[in-house]
Amino acid sequence: MNKKIKKFFLTLLFCASIASSTAQSREADSLLNVLKALDANPSHEFLPAIKGSSADLGLDTIRINTLNSLAWELKNNKLDTSIILSDQALLLAQKNKWQKGEGKSYHQLGTFNSFKGNYLIALDYAFKAIKIRKSLNDKGGISATLGNIGNIYKEQGNYPKALDYYFNALKMSEELGNKKGIGGYLSNIGNVYAEQSDYPKALDCYFKVLKIAEALKDKSGIARIFGNIGNIYRGQGDYSKASDYYFKALKMNEDLRDKIGIAINFNNIGSVFYEQKNYTEALDYNFKALKITKEVGNKNGIARLLGNIGNLYTCTMNYKSAEEYLQKALALSIEINALRLVEQNQQYFSELYIRSNQPAKALNHYKKYIAVKDSIFNEENTKKAVRTEMNFEFEKKQAIAKAEQEKQNSIAK
Asked: What single DSSP character describes residue 43?
């Protein structure tokens, strides 16, 4: 390792060390120790001491894998550190011309930037990952990155494209027999249905996912799906069931020390209080969620919570604070190109100015709200979403019919 790279690597280890102690993750500490040991023992004699290593595995290959693994461990608590770690893994992979490591690094950088709301950057990384993974015929990797691209399009409010990528990822996971992947993509598809208020379809997806997560004993997945089910019951006005699922999810997230999950469920619980017009409790939970979301640097979550707080101040007739928070929310939503949040915050602004007796401003923001809403939910987009679902179901039935026919042909022979 030359001096320049070594100096940067040692600085990186220092940053990671801080993040690891904050996360208090045994896995993160273990990975960090591997990185420190690699840096202290730059010799192939050290390889046998590393779990799962072999003599034909290069030190830089182990370093790349460990950097990416550590980045993934820290993503829920120290997102900026995760980006630095995977970026370093990418540089090493490119230096060694190791495409598998390069594809993994691009994939993770796409994920992390999506969490931060940097959607254009995230898409660029994701498409680079897809290109490499296709060249390697890495079906599992392709499926994961297709799912990531779907996530980005969903956050941007492009539901037809999101569903298209989710169904392609789901199809590939089914072919591979990857139950965790199947659960993840069914959950994502359910999220799209939920955002379009198609609650029966969303619940159908979520309960299928819950069954898979419980069979796999995937605590993180169970917590996530509890929150999703809570969202549907809240949308249907069943606040008792919604709260029950939210608090179950929160407890699991706290046990897992998942900061993003904790913040999401604080926000969800705040939403139940909002629906019940208990604005004091709603504000308390939203501010708790905002504090954590700022710590992890999730721009999408920050924009959503700023808008929620602004709207809550409108409800309590604190119009000055409402305007302050909504301005920040709208600016950030536009910056990260999150159309769904732009739509929501334009609506919040319209309601603020109606209540504060400023009809001209209210009408201006209402027109903007309708324009964004139409761009998300226009008829052509709805048709595309339905076609995507129908194509997936048709292809699935075709594959089953073909397999059955081949079985009958074999019996006949």
From this structure: S
